[in-house]
Specification:
The chain is an alpha+beta fold and 410 residues long. The protein contains nine helices and 14 strands. It has helices at 2-9, 12-22, 36-39, 41-61, 108-165, 172-226, 363-367, 373-384, 386-405, and strands at residues 64-69, 75-77, 83-88, 94-96, 101-105, 229-231, 236-239, 248-249, 257-261, 269-273, 286-291, 294-306, 333-339, 353-359.
Length: 410
Amino acid sequence: MFELIICSLVTILPDYLYRRYVQNKRFGKEITFYSVWYELRWGITGCLLLTISLITMIFYFHPATNSATLFFRTIPILPEGSGRVAEVKVGFSAPVSKGDVIFRLDSSKQEAALETAKRKIAEVDAAMLTAEADVTKAEAQIQEARSAHQQAKDELDVKSDLQRRNPGIVPQRDIEKLQVAVDQRQAGIDGAVAGKQSLVARLSTLLPAEKASAEAALAQAQVDLDKTFIRAGVAGRVEQFALRIGDVVNPLMRPAGILIPEGAGQRVLQAGFGQIEAQVMKEGMVAEATCISRPWVIIPMVVTTVQDYIAAGQFRGGEQLVEAQNVARPGTILVHLEPLYKGGLEGVTAGSSCIVNAYTSNHEEIVAKETSTGRKIVLHVIDGVGLVHALLLRIQALLLPIKTLVLSGH
């Protein structure tokens, strides 16, 4: 409507003034309801063409969309394993901090495993004390074997010396028996030393390894027990949490609820613009938005990201070929916008629907020396007509509550 009024001021109005004051034709006389098209045909035709051109230029170089939303990511509340709920710590809707327990699963099996691991460590500690006593006992046995060996060796030396001085005084058979006894006592020493080495190896290597394994099993049991306590990974709010004691939860099929992170949907506004505007949408473009949850407020925005892909064109590989005509609706160019000023989205409810206008700026090209005068004029016109779109957005923001509350029929 505004474009039509503006264009009529430079087309229909001059045509009428020419007919009125040059040709002396008046409304109700020469210009009637039936002859107005013939009399003002040049002005009306020019107005229609100029209006269409102006609207096309405005909506192409200063794109707008109603498909803008403050999307936010929700976090499913899931245990790492299946189980039956034993305790619920939060209500249907409640704020939670990072690390707070939301609910607890039945942990009898994990507690039994933890107790078993503790008993195993105690068992290994007792075995280490017993092994230390066995090492002391082995040292005493070695000392006893050495004493017996020394006694047999001394007796052999004495009788060998007597036989050497007076052959025949000691039977050869007695000397051989003493030699066998010395060898036997030496074997006893070697056996006792080997037994001690075995006990020392068990005390210094085997039992510590068993204790380390038991401690690892204890740590694993403690981890399994801790997994029965489902905690909040981030600060946020639990919503529509209807979990009750006795429910069975499963990480694959039965999530427990939804956690909305703190500040979700308060940083980025996502808007979908038509594909025809793919060449116009650029990072750094200034934009404006008005949202239903915060009426009568214009929020200055800036384009931070323009997605290079159109979501409607994605597919998953399978056993069937893609048929292009099955795409029901053309996709949009997804654009991320952030507030131009800090706190710009405060008061806007996450998930709210918004209207967004983006504005093309050609200032750098206009001030460039190599830009021709004609192109500068065209670029000035393109940038200038953005004012019309900004005015339309403000009218939409003004009428949005009336349209929603009165004209929607609800």
